[in-house]
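for the recovery benchmark. tokens below, seq after
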């Protein structure tokens, strides 16, 4: 293997996935702008568009009139209540004066004061009558206020009813709006998702696979997240159903490929070791040697210390811990160079000591 090839491979993978993620990010940003422009082609309904503006305006004017009337009547009621309070206080004072005067008269016993008693009693009755008159006016005013309040409540109820009907129409139209936007987005996203799935299946091993992989990631994001804001009540079923279909389809495809690979490996193990050795590619051989596994059956060819025969134990010779042939499938793993005799991994192209090309 070339120096630092493992580091180069790891760096290459990081660069490839970075390219995929960056492409996916910019595709997402672009799609958000496109979807935003698509949404603007359909005007979003507003609640006020469904109201009977003339009727609402008329009812609002009536309410203003009733409220203005209530303010005037409330002001009058306050004035009458203050007047009643004054009249009540005057009556109380006059009654107290009359009671005191009666006590004095009883003490003196002056019969010539009978006319004055009658006069004072009449005056007390006048104070009481004044209070009662104001109370009658207050009761009449309160009746009028109640009537105005009732009328205001009826107008408010009519306005609430009209707005409730308008709100029902608004929500009904909003459902259709959300459905339109959802279908518009779906018309944009569905082909993108189909193309992304096609790229995953068809171009996963292409030399430009990071670009196809980035688009496939974007297509999954566009479907499972781009449709979220305007999903109707049944939209979740659409998304989850597609998710199930994708999971089942990709799962079936993956299981099928794995089974084919296992069957192929099992079939390979049935042919001769020489035939298997000729079919091993250099890239597979490099990975097998680096990770010390058999390039044919994939099992570890390194021996543990307790597995090495005692007659061969020599800590200074690392090759004592590997076998020349795979213990599991019989494939030749290590052989001596024809030129210098150095023991090399049999499936690498050149000798690690003299650089002579090894014969297959």
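predicted aa per position
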């Amino acid at each position: 293997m070339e120096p630092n090839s493992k580091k180069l491979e790891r760096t290459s993978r990081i660069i490839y996935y970075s390219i995929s993620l960056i492409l996916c990010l910019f595709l997402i940003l672009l799609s958000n702008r496109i979807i935003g422009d698509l949404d603007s082609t359909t005007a979003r309904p507003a609640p006020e568009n469904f109201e009977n503006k003339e009727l609402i305006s008329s009812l609002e004017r009536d309410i203003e009139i009733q409220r203005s009337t209530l303010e005037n009547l409330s002001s009058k009621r306050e004035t009458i209540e203050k007047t009643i309070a004054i009249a009540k206080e005057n009556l109380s004072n006059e009654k107290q004066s009359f009671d005191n005067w009666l006590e004095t008269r009883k003490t003196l016993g002056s019969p010539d004061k009978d006319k004055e008693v009658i006069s004072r009693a009449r005056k007390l009755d006048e104070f009481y009558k004044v209070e009662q008159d104001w109370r009658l006016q207050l009761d009449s005013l309160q009746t009028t206020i109640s009537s105005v309040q009732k009328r205001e409540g009826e107008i408010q109820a009519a306005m609430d009813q009209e707005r409730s009907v308008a709100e029902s129409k608004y929500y009904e139209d909003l459902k259709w709006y959300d459905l339109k936007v959802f279908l518009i987005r779906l018309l944009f996203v569905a082909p993108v998702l189909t193309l992304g799935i096609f790229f995953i299946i068809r171009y996963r091993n292409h030399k430009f696979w990071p670009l196809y992989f980035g688009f496939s990631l974007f297509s999954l994001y566009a479907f499972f997240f781009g449709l979220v804001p305007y999903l109707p009540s049944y939209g979740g079923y659409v998304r989850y159903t597609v998710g199930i279909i994708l999971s089942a389809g990709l799962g079936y495809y993956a299981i099928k490929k794995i089974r084919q690979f296992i069957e192929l490996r099992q079939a390979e193990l049935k042919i001769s070791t020489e035939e298997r050795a000729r079919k091993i590619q250099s890239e597979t051989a490099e990975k097998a040697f680096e990770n010390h596994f058999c390039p044919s059956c994939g099992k570890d060819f390194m021996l543990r210390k307790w597995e090495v025969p005692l007659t061969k134990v020599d800590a200074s010779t690392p090759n004592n811990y590997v076998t020349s042939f795979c213990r599991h499938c019989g494939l030749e793993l290590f052989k001596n160079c024809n030129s210098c005799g150095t023991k090399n991994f049999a499936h690498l192209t050149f000798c690690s000591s003299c650089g002579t090309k090894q014969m297959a």
